[in-house]
Write a structure and sequence with these properties.
Blueprint: H1 6-10, H2 33-40, H3 51-56, H4 67-89, H5 91-102, H6 106-139, H7 147-160, H8 165-177, H9 206-212, H10 217-238, H11 265-289, H12 291-317, E1 324-325, H13 332-337, H14 347-351, H15 360-365, H16 374-385, H17 396-406, E2 416-417, H18 440-447
Antiparallel strand pairs: 1-2
Helix pairs in contact: 4-6, 5-6, 6-7, 6-12, 10-12, 11-12
Length: 449
């Protein structure tokens, strides 16, 4: 099989390498060369990179936010979504005229209709996920230097997808201030040996792991389906997979939730009112044209959009080769480097999802830098990051399956820990972690938090 350089992937111009015979699709289920290289470095040494050095490597003009340019990207994504919607409203007519032109009967017309609907659902879900990523950029105030404009756009885009903008923004900010810090991080909190009720590592047997955590492939697929399509909304409603330090009943919709600071209360109420208005609009729409139509035009692409956003956000930090830190060893830079850049869906991820997966490491170092500058930021900081920079060209769906099946739990003790699989095995270890020394306040300031 011909080799493909990592630069081909990082630029988002990757295409499947040539192959012959039974190996024609083997590249779809193969670990990327960067992942294989990290596996070889099984003895992990926590990075000593300073955010000052990273900050100094970035040209100042890349920090500038351009309102006109930001609005262009918003208008482009919204415009394409409107185009897809208009296409969907004409599917019945398209199907009929196409079937007549081809001399097809009812079965042929049915097949053409379903083909058009699948085409619409895919592209509209991609556009909806683009809404969410642009709302994410607004939450970081990187679309425009004007905070109010960012928030108006952000609440419109996120509310349309039933995401409470200000509530999500508050917890997402906390995530950036404590990425992969087990005491502080907000999302995709890993299970531990204790929560799974496993025996201690020194005493656990293969049968213990098999009896307590091994799953059938069918059950794993069911769990993956629930997590992908419903997981984000369940997290918003009752903190599913969120930090377990919060009490039962924690929700992004409760202004009094421990997720928020007292000064956030009015903003959370505004988010709730906006979500209520969106639900009312959907109810009126259903009353006017029927549930089946709204299901096809809105809810199906909405569900698939959730699948995409859960996919790329999960893969940004959940990987068998990426560490989690406890307070003693964590620094802001180490948390930012516990992030993986991936060429998710190639040009689609660049064009529609605004580099949210392609250049997420750079985003964690500098949250207010506009997404359209992140590729150049990544290239500027890579020499400073060296081997600490994590990139993975593993095909996206295989990487998702790999992380979901191998990132099972972590140990309850240890300053630096890695995911273990269903057999209690970890790919990497950190025998002698170094305590973190970086000042947090200065790091947050340089990052734009």
């Amino acid at each position: 099989m011909a080799e493909v350089s990592s630069s081909d992937y990082t630029k988002g111009h990757w295409s499947a390498p040539p192959a012959q015979g039974s190996q024609a699709l083997s590249w779809l289920v193969r670990d990327g060369p960067e992942y294989e290289e990290r596996k070889k470095r099984s003895q992990f040494v926590p990075p000593s990179v300073s955010i000052k050095d990273v900050h100094a490597a970035v040209p100042r003009h890349l920090f500038e936010r351009n309102t006109a340019k930001g609005l262009f990207y918003v208008a482009r994504t919204v415009g394409l979504s409107v185009f897809f919607y208009k296409f969907a409203t004409q599917i019945d007519e398209f199907s009929w005229s196409t079937a007549v032109a081809l001399g097809l009967g009812p079965t042929g017309r049915w097949l053409i209709s379903w083909s058009f609907w699948i085409l619409f659902w895919f592209w509209q879900s991609v556009a909806f996920a683009g809404f969410w990523t642009l709302g994410h950029e607004c939450g970081h105030e990187s679309v425009s230097p004007y905070g109010s404009l960012n928030h108006v756009i952000g609440i419109c885009l996120h509310t349309f997808l039933l995401t409470p903008y200000f509530a999500w923004r508050a917890t997402h900010r906390t995530h950036h201030k404590g990425a992969n810090n087990l005491a502080r991080d907000e999302t995709y909190h890993p299970m531990t040996r204790k929560t799974l009720k496993l025996p201690g590592a020194a005493h656990a047997t293969k049968m213990d792991y098999k009896d307590l955590i091994e799953e059938t492939p069918l059950y794993t697929l069911f769990k993956l389906f629930v997590r992908q399509f419903l997981g984000f909304q369940l997290y918003l409603v009752h903190n599913r997979k969120g930090n377990p330090k919060y009490p039962p009943g924690t929700s992004h919709y409760k202004p009094s939730s421990k997720l928020f600071k007292p000064q956030d209360k009015n903003y959370i109420i505004i988010s709730d009112i906006a979500i209520g208005c969106m639900l009312l609009n959907l109810a009126v729409w259903i009353y006017q044209i029927g549930f089946h139509a709204v299901w096809s035009l809105y809810f199906v692409p909405w569900l698939w959009a959730h699948n995409w956003l859960v996919m790329f956000t999960y893969l940004q930090h959940s990987d068998p080769t990426v560490p989690y830190y406890r307070e003693k060893s964590w620094t802001f830079a180490r948390g930012a480097l516990a992030t993986v850049d991936r060429p998710v869906f190639g040009w689609i991820g660049v064009f529609f999802w605004n580099n949210i997966a392609h250049h997420h490491v750079a985003h964690h170092f500098f949250v207010t830098i506009p997404f359209y500058n992140l590729e150049r930021v990544t290239e500027a900081i890579k020499p400073v990051l060296g081997d600490s920079y994590c990139y993975d060209s593993t095909p996206t769906f295989y990487a998702l399956w790999r992380s979901f099946t191998q990132c099972t739990f972590i140990e309850d003790e240890g300053d630096v820990v890695f995911f273990k699989n269903q057999r209690g095995e970890a790919l990497r270890d950190c025998p002698a972690p170094q305590a973190g020394k970086e000042g947090e306040d200065e790091a947050f300031k340089l990052a734009g938090l």
